[in-house]
Design a protein that fits this description.
The complex is a heterodimer. By secondary structure, chain A is mainly alpha-helical. Chain A folds into two domains: 131 residues, no CATH class; 94 residues. In chain A, strands 1-2-3 form a three-stranded antiparallel sheet, with no helix packed on it. The longest helix of chain A is centred in the first third of the chain and has 19 residues. By secondary structure, chain B is mostly helical. Chain B folds into two domains: 30 residues; 123 residues, Cytochrome c/b562 (Four Helix Bundle (Hemerythrin (Met), subunit A), Up-down Bundle), CATH 1.20.120. In chain B, 72% of the residues lie in helices and 0% in strands. In chain B, helix 2 runs antiparallel to helix 3 and helix 3 packs antiparallel against helix 5. Classes of the chains: A mainly alpha, B mainly alpha. At the A-B interface, helix 10 and helix 11 of A face helix 2 and helix 6 of B.
Chain lengths: 292, 161
Amino acid sequence: MRHWPGLRLAVGALASLALGASTGSRADTASERGEHLFQAALCGVCHTAETGRYLAGGRPIETPFGTFYTTNITPDPQYGIGGWSDEDFVKALTEGVSPGGSHYYPAFPYTAFTRLKREDVLAIKAYLDGVEPVAQPNREHDLVWYAGWRWPISVWKWLYVEPGEFQPDPERDARWNRGAYLVEALGHCAECHSPRNLLGAVIPERRYRGNPDGPDGEAIPDITPNKESGIGGWTERMLTFYLEVGMTPDGDFAGGLMASVIDQGTGNLSAEDRRAIARYLLSLPSSEPSAE
Amino acid sequence: MNQERRTARFPVLVGLLACLGVMTAVSAEELAFDQIEPAIKYRQNVMEAMGGLVGISAGRLRDGLTFGPALPEVARALQAMTRDAAALFPEGTDFGETEAKPDVWERPEEFARASQTLRERVDSYVAATGQGDRVAMLKAFKAVGEACKSCHKDFRKPHEH
């Protein structure tokens, strides 16, 4: 390649054109594109502990089933995911299965990541391959006794996970479809913003209607366009601005988990991607006030 | 031996109790018990006023509305509300109907720094509204927002809209 600088430039330009087209940004390398996707998928929000090293895991996630501790996703070969093949990584994200073949608890949102395009999953891996490895062992989850086994998760998956890549809706425009991909596959917004049943699965008919028992004991608001309890009174511009800055239409500011989501995720996306998220969310069916 | 140790403990106990007494006396001096509830309400009113002024700013900067209160005046009103945000959280106002996290009183230096950041950013915002350049105003306004958000993240309990 050294002798063909022109060719290299041309290939690079072509690649960035192709990649740019699918992320809506001017990311150059797979790793840069991966960083953008990594932010959109909010990986860092959970996989970094409050006072811990970047992506070394250990952040507690409190749930009705006990406390989960997120894992080390730095490229450390012993404690992180440094030894993983591309196939291992794709399988973990889209099937919720570890390289050793055991099932992940659905606290890891493979229910959403199964919608990711394979090329996007690999771009995220390319980004993770380049972060600083941290030799920090994973902490064991602290769960209620009946959640201690992993084999029932296969049954859980059979009941509640519909595997498969995101399929765009041909009836809708490109912005809506981009928004749907960002919300459903990458951002996994429904994971926090929906109530769950006794087995910890999102209740489909109440998707996006808020969760009184969200992670860390936070009450998570309804984000359907319900004028009473949701964001029905917000314009697309207000919601886009919120995703960038964190300001609600009444001048209040996001705190808690959502502030992290904005700082590490939506605030770093392209303006076009934020608009797409807003377009999609405001198109969701509204929750009826009587549904609660 | 045992008796001796007990006698040795006695002055320690007295000392501890005295400290407690002093601590109670100090906080009582800062804010009378029956002023705690009013102080929390007072703080919430100031915070709501800040929110209102920020919301008005957004109506102009985000939505492009051009009538109603002039932006430099709105910014100066916000400046009045944010001179010393930390002062709105005196000792003792940590219980009752408040969303303030205990961190406010447990990490006072950090909280004071956050308050100072807010003050500086609002000053820059006021300056920008005096110049009138829309891009610069929006940038300064977003910086104010960052200060609000970062403080809420660290020092306010989860909030329902």
